[in-house]
Structure formats: structure tokens, C-alpha cells
Specification:
Elements (H helix, E strand, L loop, with lengths): L4 H9 L10 H9 L4 H12 L5 H10 L13 H13 L4 H10 L6 H10 L9 H21 L7 H10 L6 H11 L1 H8 L18 E7 L8 E7 L5 E7 L4 H16 L5 E4 L6 H14 L5 H4 E3 L6 H13 L9 E5 L3 E5 L4 H7 L8 H28 L16 H6 L14 H10 L11 H14 L18 H16 L24
Parallel strand pairs: 1-4, 4-5
Antiparallel strand pairs: 1-2, 2-3, 6-7
Helix pairs in contact: 3-4, 8-10, 9-10, 9-17, 10-11, 12-13, 12-19, 17-20, 17-21, 20-21
């Protein structure tokens, strides 16, 4: 048999030639499964005690006629679906999409991404005047529909743009906002005349997962609605938000926190919250999770009380939420600053408080609280969840006076922080998390009315022709949405309660307490 060039070179150098014929099929299979030559060499060393360099491996593959198959991006449906998700659902720019794709193993250049976007029908610029005019009409129709739902009442330019992108629209940001300003100048004026807030402390926050803030929005608490959220301090990414009732507050906060930790397989170094009142179980759980991987960690190293100065991140976000979503239901008197006139108190509309002042609602009257929950809980949850999704994908501008605030999109700063920014997330002990979650598997924290009461309300609302999960469009300027439906359901609930009919209308009662998370030694 004629000697191959590789055999001749090995003989001339005095080094024995490595025989890989027995492992040929295995090597080719590994290469076709996207394993690099260097990794194949490590595999051969570990499994067969064969020492070979990656350069020699590359030459051997070439000799066998094995060539790397370049993936065709044009026909890669998985890549196309991922691009559409990152563009519409997450609201990323081209450069941000490329960063995420590279982290996920896709080799896509900016030019290729632009070509794929056009292939998918996603065009950012419209050069034709006719196309621009057609988009104005499309914006007008879409805005009218969303304004009727009441979802975007207080959105600013960035939130508005990202909200419609999440709905599948590709609108020019300024064109969209100009039409919105023409339709609702009152909303724009309300945002620009915001009340003054105390400036935050100049504290530099190092990176994601260093501190998670958990806190509650109390302005609707007098009406039975408990709103809690958890935010990463560096990125201002909202990890979760829950709109519930008093009976499920402590358990609901804990359950959502554990779900976030499980999904991300990471936990923050520090948890900051009002731990002694509304979320008493959360501090114990976080301390236990830290102790599971760091037995010597002290409680004050991982749990901190939520003082006003330290919780500015989440307090600022609550102000944004109130201004954008819940102002219709509860807005306190504002102090706005008018040029040449100075600070001026302005009383704004407060629908829920007006119901109370008219004697049409009291949180201590079960039929009235049941009616309010049945109508407005699904609506508030839908609007707030939509806002959170939009918030996480909107762009936060750089502020020269606040260097502690990281610019950019919360999603990118949390999941793909800039170069040089450390991710402080810590590993999680899976058995410990699973044991905690198992404690309340059957506990439904999304429940806001007992099952019997909920079925009765659904039947009554169906008879009234009202679906809170898909409410009808509101009339322009309607500051008391679905008041007639509330009054009708309230009257039926009162009559049902006075007659002593079944089922007996009731509110949710606290479930079993969750204890036993704290280690014996502190």
C-alpha cells in the first residue's frame, strides 16, 4: 500500500502516527453534532487515552473528507422565530438582538440580521410618503382600540412604542407619539406636570442580582387590592408582579420569589424589603437558601430592611406604575409646578374613593367588596401585567445627574449586562427550593374570591352581558369605567346576601401559615 503524506511526515519526524480508524465513526459523529476539534481531542483523551492536538484532528477530518456544514440562516425557522420574539416581545434593537443571538450560539452579522428582518416583513423605515400616510392611519386605528381598553392611559413615548411593538406593530416611535399627543393631549399634559419627588442618594449599584427589592403598592389597599413586585436594583428589571388580596399576601410573595429563583437557577446576594410586616416569610426563606450553600453567612449579610433611601429604585418604579396604569382608580392630590406660578395643588379624579364617599362601597361590607373584586381584579391584573411587559423592554436613557442608574433596556441589563459589569447571582440549592415550593403546591395565590362566590359572580356578570376578562371599550373621557355594571352587581349581591341564599358570599380567608424555613442556629 502506498504511504500517505501524513504517514511519511510522521515517519520522517520520528513520531509515531496515531491510528484513529477505530474511533473514526465516533469522531465524525461528534463533529457533526457541533463539537469543536479541541473538545473532540479532550473527549478522546478522557475516553480512550489518546493524545492528539486539535490541529492534527482538523487535518484528519479534512483527510476523511468531513467538512463543516454551514447553517443556512435563510431557511432556519428556529432562528427566524427567535428573531421575531426578541424584536416584538422583548423589544430589542438590532445590535441587542445580535448580542443575544451570539450568546445563544448563532453566528449572525448585522447585515445578515437586517436581511432576515426584511425577509420576515419587519422594516423599520418607510421612505415612501404613501406608506408613511398609510402607517399614520394604522396608528390611529390601533391607538383608538387600545385607548378604549384603558391600557395605555398614562404611557410616555418609550412605553407607548414598546407596547405596540409587543402587539406586533412596527411603528416609527415619533410618528406614533405625535398621533397619540393629538388624540389625548390631556394625558401628555398630566405626565409633563408630574409632582416633584425627592432625589435619590448617589449610590452606585454594581450589577444584576446584587440586590432584589420586594415591596408593595399600598394606594389601593383600602379597596382590597394588594399589589407586590420584585425588582432587580441594578437593571430595574421587574422579575414578577402580583395583584391579589390580603389573605394571600405573605404566601403569594414567597411563592413568586421562589418561582423566579427556580426559573433563573440564581438567587440575589441581598434581599431588601419591608420584611417585618407584609412579607414575613420571605426573609426566612432567603436566609435559608443562602445558608444551604454558604453555611457561615449571617442574616444581615443577605437580608436588609427596606428603608426609604435604600428602596428608591422600587419606589420610583411604583410612581411610574401609578402614573401609567392605576391613576384612574386611585390618584392622590398632586403638587405640580407651573411656570411663574410655582407649586399648585390639583385635585385629580379618584374613582374608587368617590364610590366610597357616595356610600356605594365599603371594604367591610362583603357584597360590595365581592362586586368590586369580580369586576376590577381581572382588569387591573391585565393592565398591570401589560405595563410590566412593556417596562422590561423599554429603553432607559442615560442621566448625567444620576450615574447610579444604568441606562439601556431592563431586559438586556439583567440577562445580558454590558462588558465589565459583574453578574452577582449566586447558585441555588435545588433540593431546598423544591422542599419550600412543595409546602404550598396546592395553595392558589391567584385566587381572589372563594370558588362558590366566584361561580356566582361569573353567572351574574354573564347575565348582565359583561366579561371582565374581555371588557367592552370605554367611552372617551369615561373616568368611572363600568360603574353601571358594578352598581348592578352590587345590588344583586346585596339582595342575595339579605335573602340568605346559597352560596353564601364570602371573601378569601388566609390559608395555612408557612413556617419552619429558618435554620436552628443563626
Amino acid at each position: 500500500m502506498e504511504e500517505s503524506p501524513a504517514d511519511a511526515a510522521a515517519r520522517a519526524s520520528g513520531r509515531p502516527r496515531v491510528d484513529l480508524e477505530a474511533q473514526k465513526a465516533e469522531i465524525i459523529g461528534l463533529f457533526e453534532n457541533k463539537m469543536s476539534s479541541a473538545d473532540i481531542c479532550k473527549h478522546l483523551k478522557a475516553q480512550h487515552d489518546i493524545q492528539i492536538s486539535s490541529r492534527t484532528m482538523t487535518k484528519r477530518l479534512q483527510r476523511w473528507g468531513v467538512k463543516e456544514k454551514k447553517e443556512n440562516n435563510t431557511s432556519n425557522q428556529v432562528l427566524h422565530a427567535r428573531i421575531k420574539h426578541l424584536f416584538f416581545e422583548v423589544g430589542l434593537s438590532d445590535q441587542e438582538i445580535i448580542t443575544v443571538l451570539h450568546d445563544e450560539g448563532y453566528e449572525v452579522s448585522q447585515r445578515t440580521l437586517r436581511r432576515l428582518r426584511h425577509q420576515l416583513g419587519i422594516r423599520l423605515r418607510l421612505d415612501s410618503p404613501a406608506q408613511q400616510q398609510a402607517q399614520v392611519q394604522e396608528i390611529l386605528d390601533a391607538l383608538t382600540e387600545e385607548l378604549d381598553k384603558g391600557t395605555i392611559e398614562g404611557y410616555g413615548k418609550e412605553l407607548l412604542h414598546n407596547h405596540f411593538r409587543s402587539k406586533g406593530y412596527v411603528f416609527a416611535r415619533d410618528r406614533l407619539y405625535n398621533v397619540y399627543r393629538m388624540l389625548r393631549p390631556d394625558n401628555v399634559e398630566r405626565r409633563t406636570s408630574d409632582f416633584q419627588r425627592r432625589p435619590p442618594p448617589p449610590k452606585i449599584l454594581a450589577g444584576p442580582n446584587l440586590t432584589w427589592h420586594v415591596n408593595g403598592y399600598t394606594k389601593l389597599a383600602n379597596f382590597g387590592f394588594r399589589i407586590h413586585a420584585e425588582i432587580d436594583s441594578f437593571s430595574r428589571f421587574v422579575l414578577w408582579i402580583n395583584v391579589g388580596v390580603d389573605a394571600h399576601t405573605a404566601t403569594g410573595v414567597l411563592k413568586h420569589h421562589l418561582e423566579s429563583v427556580t426559573a433563573k437557577a440564581r438567587q440575589p446576594r441581598t434581599l431588601r424589603s419591608d420584611l417585618e410586616s407584609e412579607v414575613p416569610l420571605l426573609a426566612d426563606a432567603h436566609f435559608t437558601l443562602r445558608r444551604a450553600t454558604e453555611p457561615n453567612v449571617q442574616r444581615d449579610q443577605c437580608c436588609a430592611p427596606g428603608r426609604a433611601n435604600d428602596t428608591h429604585r422600587i419606589e420610583s418604579w411604583w410612581a411610574q406604575l401609578a402614573k401609567s396604569v392605576v391613576t384612574l382608580y386611585h390618584v392622590r392630590p398632586e403638587c405640580i409646578c407651573i411656570p411663574k406660578l410655582g407649586p399648585t395643588n390639583t385635585q385629580t379624579q379618584n374613582y374608587f374613593r368617590q364610590l366610597h364617599s357616595e356610600g356605594l362601597f365599603s371594604s367591610t361590607v362583603v357584597p360590595e367588596q365581592v362586586a368590586l373584586f369580580a369586576i376590577y381584579m381581572p382588569i387591573l391584573r391585565s393592565h398591570i401585567q401589560s405595563y410590566v411587559q412593556t417596562w422590561n423592554m423599554h429603553n432607559i436613557r442615560k442621566q448625567a445627574n444620576h450615574p447610579e442608574r444604568a441606562p439601556g433596556k431592563p431586559f438586556m441589563n439583567f440577562h445580558h449586562p454590558p462588558k465589565g459589569v459583574e453578574n452577582f447571582g449566586l447558585p441555588v440549592d435545588t433540593p431546598t427550593v423544591q422542599a419550600m415550593q412543595q409546602t404550598h403546591t396546592a395553595y392558589d395565590t391567584d385566587e381572589y374570591l372563594p370558588p362558590d362566590t366566584m361561580r356566582w359572580c361569573e353567572a351574574q356578570l354573564q347575565d348582565l352581558g359583561f366579561d371582565p376578562l374581555a371588557p367592552p371599550a370605554r367611552l372617551p373621557g369615561d373616568l368611572q369605567p363600568f360603574r353601571s355594571v358594578y352598581l348592578a352587581l352590587r345590588e344583586r349581591a346585596w339582595r342575595h346576601d339579605r335573602l340568605g341564599a346559597e352560596p353564601k358570599l364570602a371573601l378569601c380567608m388566609p390559608g395555612q401559615s408557612l413556617h419552619g424555613y429558618m435554620p436552628q442556629s443563626r
